[in-house]
Amino acid sequence: MYAFTLERPATVADAVKLAGAGGKPLAGGQTLLASMKLRLSAPEQLVDLGGIAELAGIKKDGNTLVVGAMSRHLDVANNADVKAAYPALANLASRIGDRQVRAMGTIGGSVANNDPAACYPSAVLGSGATIVTSKREIAADDFFQGLFTTALEEGELITAIRFPIPKKAVYEKLRQKASHFPLVGVFLAQYDSGVRVAVTGAGNGVFRHKGLENALSKSFTPESAAAVKIDASELNSDLHASAAYRANLISVLTQRAVQALA
Hints:
Elements: E1 5-7, H1 12-20, E2 24-26, H2 32-37, E3 45-48, E4 58-61, E5 64-68, H3 73-78, H4 80-85, H5 87-94, H6 99-104, H7 107-113, H8 120-127, E6 130-133, E7 137-139, H9 140-143, E8 158-164, E9 168-175, E10 182-191, E11 194-200, E12 207-208, H10 210-218, H11 222-226, H12 243-261
Parallel strand pairs: 1-3, 2-3
Antiparallel strand pairs: 4-5, 5-8, 6-7, 6-8, 9-10, 10-11, 11-12
């Protein structure tokens, strides 16, 4: 690592000032610290968000779950309100990475980083959640903008994420065994307004699949999902899987998700 200073603000306002002046926000550090150790990132100042009480906590508010940005993956997985109201979200959190990652990683850090194979972005987009920041509220459909890119502005921090509770939901993934990231993950949520399907691990970032959404909103069956052609032309192809294989996985995992909910 290169030399850096560490700041530990106690309030969001102080953290925003430091981030706006060039400080690099540090949430769980599961990506940032690893990149610093490899000298791929060299921030001169880290702004540790771990001591800010207003960023922690999970609560059920009517038909919405509000998850504080500094909630650890284990917090979400074990929270009684999440397990009762949104078990698919608790299940997703319980299967992120390994136990060490789940003990340190945070939902806010994962969503802000927007790794193209991260699990949480699929839940946020698949739920039509709202990302609450230090400046505004951003709909999930407007937040994720591609490879490690989001709508966050310089110095803007995620403070919480609001999840509308669906009628039912499920997350299916095929894990890449070396990294524990999903080779492909599919988050499916059913609301009164229709079905949302978000895919991670397959493309340049998390995305919704409108063909699957339309088909399943009309007929919520595995056969309906199987009839949708998955275009592989814009999907990832690497040493782990071809684009065609990932396209097939999207179809298979969606069928499994529908069958699980049926």
